[in-house]
Amino acid sequence: MITIDPSSALPPFEQLRAQFVEAVASGELAAGERLPTVRRLADDLGVAPGTVARAYRELEASGIIETRGRAGSFVSLDHDPVRQQAQRAAAAFVEKVRALGLDADEALQIAAAALRAGA
């Protein structure tokens, strides 16, 4: 359960951010779980919506949560930074392959050969 301690030296947005990180790390919040809307959480905690929005932005920047437009914010399905970098590299590879006009099968063969060669 997320709470704000008004007597804490930590700003409220940082308290929120830290508690969400802890909840995700402990498994209390599971991957893919939907988070409350900014307004609802702000109302529940008695803080300004901007406080919750800032915490959510920082959580998203660190890969802990992802925002899916109007669908809302969710615990990231994969908050492993190494895996995220690999996914970004794969997306860049796909973009380049498409620009070159190669089909998916040929691109996969090229990638598999590069991985086997240690490139």
TrEMBL record:
Residues 10-78 form the HTH gntR-type domain. Keywords: DNA-binding, Transcription, Transcription regulation. SUPFAM superfamilies: Winged helix' DNA-binding domain. GO terms for molecular function: DNA binding; DNA-binding transcription factor activity. Coiled coil: none annotated. InterPro entries: Tscrpt_reg_HTH_GntR, WH-like_DNA-bd_sf, WH_DNA-bd_sf. This is GntR family transcriptional regulator. It comes from Microbacterium protaetiae. The lineage of its organism: Bacteria, Bacillati, Actinomycetota, Actinomycetes, Micrococcales.
